[in-house]
Every structure is written in structure tokens, then in C-alpha cells.
Amino acid sequence: MQHILRLFILLVGLFAGTGSYAADAAPKLTTPDDLGPQIEQPIEFPHFRHAGDAKDGGMQINCMYCHTYARRSMVAGIPPVQKCIGCHQSIESVRDKPRIQKLFEYWDAKKPIPWKKVHDLPDFVRFNHERHIQRFYFQQDRPYQEVCGYCHGNVKAMTVAQRQKPLTMGWCASCHQKDHPVSANSTETGHGPNDCFTCHK
Amino acid sequence: MTENDFNRRDFLKVLGWGGTAVALSGCGNTSIQDGQETVTSYVTLPSYVIPSISNYFNSTCAQCEAGCNIMGRVREGRVLKAEGNPNSPINRGRMCGLGLSGVQAHYNPDRVRQPLLKGEAIAWDKALGVIADKLNGVKGAEVAFLTGNMSGHVQALLGNYMDELGSKNHFSYEAISPAVLRAANKKAYGVSMPRYRIDKARVVVSFGADFLGAWVSPVHFSQQYAQFRKGNRPEGRGVLVQIEPKMTLTGANADRWIAVRPGSEGVLALGIINALGKAGLAIPADIAAASKAYTTERVSSETDVSAEQIEKLAALLKERTPSLVLAGSAAEGYAHGSQNAAAIALLNRVLGNVGKTVEASASVPFPQIAPTVGNRASLVSLNDGLAAGKYKVVFSYGVNPVFSAPAALKFKDNYAKADFKVAFAQYLDETAQAADLVLPLDSAMEDWATVVPEYMVTPEGAGSAAYAQMSFRQPLMDKLYPDTRGIGDILLALLKQRKADKYKEFDDFYAYLRSAVLKNKVALGGKATDDDDAFWDETLSKGFLPMKGIAGTVSAKASASDLKLPSAAADRDYPLRLIPSISASMRDGRNANEPWLQESPDPLTTIVWDSWVEINPKTAAKLGIVEGDIVEVTSRSGTIRTQAYLFPGIHPDAVSVPVGYGHEAMGRYAKGVGANVFAMLDAVFDKETGELALNETGVKISKTGQRVLIVKEEGPVGGSQAGKKKIAVQVAADKVDLSKEV
Ligand code: SF4
């Protein structure tokens, strides 16, 4: 009896421990809908203005104009401040908008913008943008908004304050198990790789 | 069940439930930390940067004197790894483990980060002001500057500074240096460091030169050795014979390893010459006369090498030409070290190797940047000066004599006699700790320098004998700490203190270096019409420049005229000979604070993170010592305690302890690990060069009664075959016919 009691105390302690750990972390790491917390950015970047469809007042800029490394590197890259300024210094019409003023403040101070990570994978996962872009965009000739959208959702309609897809291992695997056409002009299909080593290395 | 009966099974149950609890709380969710990290973008991006993709920048390794050319792998502004520069004639794309650990010297958490005046952090301006103050009214002759090996433009600046001070006291000291060899070579061949062509030889006989491990330019020699071992080269596969009292890495790779009684290497060399004569080789008269007395029987009894073995060696050398005979550190470290080296050099003359496998080397056209090579004689003369109170202000850079001077010199006490001591240091090592002012240095991955290695390679092709090389060290990343400075920048600041006008055009050392190189564009392989910027950029991206050197010649001058080889006298009180061994990773201990080096197992004993004393199993049996016994190794000058390791690869008359361990300062990974063998060396010097005789210390060993389990990679099974019975040997090692062996 005595040792059942001791066990009980230990268990309570364990639950309390995990509970308090969760309570301390802010913002919450997990959300009921699986999509991570809403995240506040230093500048609320209007993806919808830049990438959105023309009929909605967007400029239909290709994602890879700014995230220029996606097709040749593991990471897609956040554009250097210089890139934003490159266009905005000659766009007088929005120069006074608070967001743009803030942008120029960073530029004048030669300070990088401390964007918050919205899509983050644990360090033991290796995700390679280049592979996916080369395969779906360049080989299969799919629209870039669809290709980027597999993981990032309909970015052209939003600022990015929250993840759109769970990015869990099961979610990745669910896609890798589907059959995909191998190239734009063939009916042949193939899986994505399913070896542990592909992502965990 | 005990009273407190919380048993293992219950505990596992709890753990099981606990695990469930954690799994439940994370059900369906990941623990990705969105919004916890920033992903900071560049403000402006250099055109060559692609995030996540590495760039390679050429530079020069600073971990030993060989000066290999390296490429630093740099990602997002951080250096991650060093690799060999494939175009380098020295290392052709390869590196050694010591070189690879250079990134640990850079990221090391124990670096000095601010100028320290008697332990208190101060600003740079103040630090430089203090130096100016202390130099005020001090005569040039009272200032001493101690450095390790040096070359290139930092040396040129130092030369200028010493001139400004009116001081000639630049001492250059290396704890481990082939200084005796240099002197002997100068006499025997006319150059102090000829090019050894292992790759051209058909047989190499090395008297303790650990050229695959820690001798002169190991990565370069390893590649020559790879050539040497190829069966399909015209000369056939080469045979390596290593003669030394304690097995080195090279010895372990040799076809034949011969244990020689410590100190008798020269005698053996003369014995081989004698045997060569008997076997019918024409020997010059003077050498024949000198070696006449060294009959095989006598040599055999003095050296412990069997008569049969000596004759076999002679037969092998006679049959296979060209050969190459090397004299390494094991043969040098005696009071008669020069004589040993001279006797060994005679072999090369007798065998006609000079000019074939012992080649001429070019000398550097600019004396200010030519390498100054350190030796221990220099330390002794500094030490004498300090003891006599001659020096008031002492600078030190790149050396740690308080740690590595032999105990008998009492260097630490003498160093304390100087009024003001300035140490330029990357770590608070023993010397920096004993200094008054410590100035923090950039790491080699943050600093600018040019390096002219002493052992310069002669590439194949026309005019190559006149080739010398200047290597560039460029920063692989930004400084980790804002308050460290490069030695070049510090020297420039000190020069400006005295001659502001002369140096005002140079904002920093980089500007000085660039202008100095561009001024000599033509001598450095460029054309006068080359654009300065283009030439400079191209140079840096190549990483090194060929310099038109001054061609040298070698001559077979080795003479036997004043050869005097004493026979070893037994020391009753200290019967064993201590051989401080130089390992490829630890060397003189300056890199001891790099954990990779501490934990990469010694190649022969596989011991990690500690010192040990190697004892021949026969000797150990006599003394009643088993592996792991903590023993006291005592000499006339000191005592160390360390674990005993029984090692058949050592002569029964000798014991060996690796150098470089046993730091009392320097950092968390070096401090207190192992024992410092320098702290027990007798002050015995080579009679000709004044070099410290590293192997001349006699010791005795006593058990302390304590025993430990040695931490090593080698397992208990199959680790040592010594003492095992019932092993059926097919051919006994001394019955193999080496001359037939390929
Ligand atoms: S031998 Fe090794 S430590 Fe020495 S310079 Fe070459 S790579 Fe560096």
C-alpha cells in the first residue's frame, strides 16, 4: 500500500511537471487546429498585394522573385532588405504608408528586419526546397502558386501570420505516398522517397 | 525486499505512464517552435552568398609549422570546416587531424577576449599606453621579444619594430624543433633543410624521423609516402625501415621496425657503413677509416641490434638505389645528437643519395620575410639573460615557455625577474598567466598574415629548384569578439607610437600587407602591367604565390673527420632513459585546449584524455608493474605521476611519456589533463648546437600502489598478444628476408 502511495505521488509530480512546463511557454507551442500560433511580425507583410491575382488588386509576382533561393538551395531565403528597397524607392504612391515607412527605417539604419519564423522544422529534419521546386515547378511545369502552396497554403491571399499546414512527419509522408506524374508530358507516376535518411540526416 | 521497497519494476511502470502522459499531451501536434525564432534577413547580400550553400575561401593552416594551404568552408558567414587546398604543392588538398581541429581553436570558449593588465580587463588604448610608458627610458638592449617560428610580413613588421626600439633581442623558440638536424644538414649537404624525396627512393631508412606523424611537414610526406608504396611505379614498391627506441606512427607503418638502444643511432649508422664496405660497396677513404672500428659484433652489442640484422640492412641498402636515410628527432635528442645526425648523414653520401633523393632547396629572395626557425638554444640564451636581470621589458608571442621549458632551466622564476612582461595570447596559458599585460589575439581564422614555410616543396618541372612559396592567411569569418586584434595590427599600432609619420599611410595591417605585396608584384609572379586590384583578388583566391627563389645546391660534404660517438654509460640511480614522445596531434601542447585532439586516440596506444608512460613488458615485469598502475617517474629534475601502459614497441632500457599534456592553465580542456613531461627534464645540451637534449634524462620508476582502468579504444581481447601462449607463428619477424620483400 505504502509504495502505491509513493507511486501516486510520483505520478502527480510528473503530470504537474509537464503541465507547468506547457504553461510557462509563451506563445503556446501547439494549437488545437494543428497550425501553430498566430505570430506577430515586425512588419505585417502583405503577401496578397505582391503575389495576389490581378483581379484582387495583386501584382502576381512570382514567389521566387523574392524567395530567390528556393530553386537552388535548401532554404527559400528571406529577401535582403535591399531587395524590398530596390522596388520601393521608385514607388512613390505608397511611400507614406506606415509599413513602408517602417521598412525605410530599417534600411536607413542598415538594420536587418527581425522576421519571426512561421514555418519551423525541428533541427533533426532536413527539408530541401530546391528538390521540390525543381521537381514540381521546372520538371512538371505546375503553376508556382500551386507548388509553393502545397506546404505554405494560399499565400497569395494573406499576410503570413500562421502556418497553414501541420508540417508533421505524418503530413509529409501522406504526400510522399501519393503517386505523382514524373514529368509534365508523361503519364508515368512515382512516389516521393520514403527512407528515413532522406529527411533525417 | 529491502525496507525501502521501491523496486525497479515499479519504477519502470511509472516511467511508462510518464511516457504516455507526454505522448498524450502532444497528441497530433508537433513541437515545432513557430514564432520562437527570428529569421533575420541580410540588409544587403554579397553576390556570392546563397543561404545554406557554402563558399570556400583559401587560407593557410596555422596549427603547425608546415603551413599547409587550406580552404575554409564558410556558410552564412561562419567557418564550419577546413579542407586542404587541392592546388597546393605542399598538401595537395589534404590535411591532418591537427589541422582540422583549427576551427576549435577559433570557436574555443576559453579565448582571451579583452586586454588584461594584471588580470583586470582594460581598454586597448590604455593597454598600448601602458606599453609606451614601460618602454620609456628603457634601453633597446633591455627589451626582448620572444616568438615561435615566424615568417612573412608580420615578421617584417616585427623586424621594423625591433629596429625602432634599437633592440637585437629577437629570440625564436620552438619546444619541438629539428634544430640539430638543420645544423648537421648544413654541414653535410650545405643546406639546412634539403628536399627529401621519399617518393623517388626505393628504400627509406629512417632513424626516428616520424614523417607520417609529427616531423617537419607530415601531410606532404604522407603523400610522398603514398607514391613510395605504389607497386606500379617504375622503381617498384619501396621498403621502409624505421630504427628508433620508441615506436612512432611511422615506425608502425614500416616494413621493418628495429628497436635500437637509445642514443646509439650514430653507432648503428657507422656499423651499417662498415657492413656496406664489407659487402663490396666503394666507401670514401676517410669514411672507411672512421667506420673501421665499428665492426658488426661491436655495433651489435652497443646498439642491441642483431649482427644478422645489420648485415641484412646493409644488403638491402646496397641492392636498392636510390635510397634515402633520414635522421629524426629520436636520434637528435642527445648530448651527442649532432654527432648522431652527422653519422647518419654519412650514409646518404656513401650511398650516393645526395642530389638524387636529397635535393637542393631554394631560398627566399626577401630576407625580411624568410622564415625564422625556432630552437631551444635561443630560449636558453633568453633564460640566461633573464636570470642575470638583463631584460626589463619582455614580449612573447606564439610560445609558451613557462610550460615547455625544461624544469632544470627554472624559466618561470627567471621570467618573473623582468619588470614588465607582455604576452600576446589567444589563451591564458601558463606564460600569459605569468605576464603583466595580456593582449588578446585574433584566431588564425580571423587574421591576416603571409606565411613562408621553411620546408617548401619543389614542384616537378623546369626551373623548379628556384621555387619558393608565399602563402596567404585571410580571415574566414568576422571576428567572434570585438576586442581581439591581429598581431600585425598590434605591431603596427606599436610602430605608430614611435614613428607615426612613417606608417600613417597604413590604416591597418591589411593595408600594409596589400601594399607590400603589390610593390613586389613582379617578383611574386605577376606582370608589371597587371591591374593591382585584379592581381590582389586573384592572389587571395588562389591562396598562395610562387616566388622566384634563389636556387640552391646540395653537395655531398658529409665528412667523418671529427666524429665522436660515446658509448652509453649506465646510470645506476636513474637506469631508464626517458623519451618524451611527440604525438601528431598534441605536439608541444599549444593545441591542448582543442577537445578533438584530446579525445582522438593516440594511434599506437589508443589512449584518450590523459598521459601515460610506455614501458616494455619485460621491464615492467621486472618492476612488478601492470597496465594501469599509477607510477612515479622520477628524474634528477622532477617527478610526474601517471598511468603505466605496457607497450612492446619500446626498447627495454627506455620509457616514454607524450609531451603536451599536463597544463596548469590555458583552458577547461587542457588544464589538469595528464602530466607535463617538460617539468622533469634535465638541462643537458647538445655539445655542438646547444640544443636541449630531449632524450638525455635518466629516470627511475616506482609504484604508488594506486591503479586505474586506462581509458582507451583498444579492447582487452586481442589488444595485446604479449604473454599469450599457444600462438603459432608462421614466420618469425626476424627471419623474414627483407631484401626480397616488397
Ligand atoms: S601538417 Fe596538419 S597542422 Fe600542420 S599545417 Fe598541415 S594541415 Fe596544418
Structural description of this entry:
The complex is a heterodimer of chains A (201) and B (742). Chain A is mainly α. Chain A has helices at 2-24, 47-51, 63-66, 81-88, 98-108, 129-139, 144-152, 169-176, 196-199; strands spanning 114-116, 180-181, 189-190. Chain A is globular, with a radius of gyration of 22 Å. Chains A and B meet through α1 and β1 of A and α1 and β1 of B. The structure holds iron/sulfur cluster (SF4).
Task: Give a short overview.
The complex is a heterodimer of chains A (201) and B (742). In chain A, 41% of the residues lie in helices and 3% in strands.
Task: Describe the SSE topology.
The complex is a heterodimer of chains A (201) and B (742).
Chain A: H1 2-24, H2 47-51, H3 63-66, H4 81-88, H5 98-108, E1 114-116, H6 129-139, H7 144-152, H8 169-176, E2 180-181, E3 189-190, H9 196-199
Antiparallel strand pairs in A: 2-3
Chain B: H1 8-25, E1 38-40, E2 55-60, E3 69-75, E4 78-84, H2 97-100, H3 102-107, E5 116-117, E6 120-121, H4 124-135, E7 143-147, H5 152-165, E8 170-172, H6 179-189, E9 195-196, E10 203-207, H7 218-228, E11 239-243, H8 249-253, E12 256-258, H9 265-278, H10 285-291, H11 296-303, H12 307-319, E13 323-327, H13 329-332, H14 337-350, E14 358-359, H15 376-387, E15 393-397, H16 401-404, H17 411-415, E16 420-425, H18 430-434, E17 437-440, E18 449-451, E19 467-473, H19 487-498, H20 509-519, H21 532-542, E20 544-548, E21 576-581, H22 595-599, E22 612-615, H23 617-623, E23 629-634, E24 639-646, E25 654-658, E26 697-707
Parallel strand pairs in B: 7-8, 7-15, 10-11, 10-13, 11-12, 15-16, 16-17, 21-25, 22-24
Antiparallel strand pairs in B: 2-3, 3-4, 5-6, 5-17, 9-14, 18-19, 19-20, 21-26, 22-25, 23-24, 23-26
The structure holds iron/sulfur cluster (SF4).
